[in-house]
Amino acid sequence: KVQEISQYNVLLGQLFAEAVLKGLQDINIRTNQVDIIGSHGQTIYHQPLPSSLHHHNITSTFQIADPSVIAVTCGVTTVGDFRVADMAAGGQGAPLVPYLDQLLAK
Asked: What is the DSSP string of 18-59?
């Protein structure tokens, strides 16, 4: 149901924010010492190969755990939608993989 997906979107944002705050507390870092939070979210659907929809070839991906909820709860600018941005640019929705590969190849 769309209502449940919407509710889980907010709930996961809250849970991710709580995890950030707990993690920062565990390592004695205050939120005012954090410049930015990056949240991939939780992928609930991923279709990197195009399929036809109303005569358009569509790739799509859908993540929940709203970064706005994380930002407001933590008081820290939060960025997200990495997969969506990568796919909009023609990628497969795994934008951090090439960076990790580069780090591991060093």
From this structure: HHHHHHHHHTT--GGG---EE---EEEEEEEEEEEETTEEEE
State the Cα angle at 81 between 79 and 87, rounded to 5°. Answer: 140
81 — pLDDT class (breaks 50, 70, 90): confident
CB 77 within 8 A of CB 70: no
Cβ–Cβ < 8 Å for 47, 59? yes
- What pTM was computed for the model? 0.84
Angle at 83 between CA 90 and CA 61, to 5 degrees: 85
